[in-house]
């Protein structure tokens, strides 16, 4: 009940009454994860360099916080059952690495699996949940991504609840990231168990992957978010998977769309590229503070598709100050003029509103009733629509 007293209807939203009460991730978590670019090729130096780059590239100033080692840091268990990190790749051990990340003003994350083995075949946490959680806390872990490989007949909600309980007893606040790929519809049960949960299979560094090729491109993932938006809110987020921005499989226009749409959906923003070697264009995408402010809006409303006309779509996100952020998305192969009517986003036709372009960083003046723009193929025009301007 305490939560109810501290919430206004506007700032909390009904869904937060069902949120995990660990006080973490009140806005979608932001950080970097090793998997999308480096897969199993993780090491102490890679993680240290990532932490250094988050600071030197301005990403820390833009809000990126968690540095997360994904699969392959662990090799075995010792005679007491303690999880053992790869001593060749992490010679200084996890505590020293966590201390280094913390010394940069950042937070440290790690990966494990609810089954007997991780997806890469490393030891999982099954049967060791409390022991592992205590170990993570002793190392200084702030974030746990918990996967779902080799879980055979385990019940998903029960398995993740067990790790939730273990983390709660660990003595350290740890963001809990559930990764069952949406396979058991976690948006229906995970709000009280985890701070975020994957909603789909793994993202591919592609705009559009035909389903039968396996995997999900940006637009397939987008379509899979339809109808689950209400599960998201402060402390409990749908996770459409980590960012591929900068990994080379898409155009800059497509990466800008990928980032815009993730911000519009209040998605966790976990960069997944080589931060030490990114171009200025990629960096400008990842640190666009106006787009990030949309993602981090305290209302925690997940934006949704409000109009679809062939390959042209309009997505809208309600913001805490009553304004809307609108993404005009062109999924087609040629430039298209895409329009949003104020009535599509819950405003009267008579309303005059200020429109601002969040990529051009430009005010576009007052518009009454609607706004439209030319949108390049696979592009997004991202604007805020703020009522009250004559
Ligand atoms: C699964 C997850 C990925 C990544 C790999 C690691 O596929 O969905 O995000 O963590 O496992 O093996």
Folded structure, characterized:
There is one protein chain. This protein is α/β, with parallel strands linked by helices. The chain folds into 2 domains: 18-295, TIM Barrel, CATH 3.20.20.70; 304-387, Sandwich (Immunoglobulin-like). It has helices spanning 2-6, 9-12, 35-38, 44-56, 59-62, 93-103, 129-139, 156-168, 218-224, 252-264, 280-286, 289-295; strands spanning 30-33, 66-68, 74-77, 83-85, 107-113, 143-147, 175-178, 196-198, 237-239, 269-271, 304-309, 312-318, 324-330, 336-341, 352-357, 362-368, 370-375, 380-387. The strands form 4 sheets. The protein has an 8-stranded parallel beta sheet. Strands 11-12-13-18-15-16 form a 6-stranded antiparallel beta sheet, with helices on one face. The protein has a two-stranded antiparallel ribbon with strand order 3-4. Strand 12 and strand 13 form a beta hairpin. The longest helix is centred in the N-terminal third of the chain and has 13 residues, at 44-56. Mean pLDDT is 94; it is low at 1-14. Alpha-D-galactopyranose (GLA) is lined by residues 35, 70-71, 118-120, 147, 179, 181, 202.
Structure at a glance:
The protein has 390 residues and is α/β, with parallel strands linked by helices. It is built from twelve helices and 18 strands. The protein has helices spanning 2-6, 9-12, 35-38, 44-56, 59-62, 93-103, 129-139, 156-168, 218-224, 252-264, 280-286, 289-295, and strands at residues 30-33, 66-68, 74-77, 83-85, 107-113, 143-147, 175-178, 196-198, 237-239, 269-271, 304-309, 312-318, 324-330, 336-341, 352-357, 362-368, 370-375, 380-387.
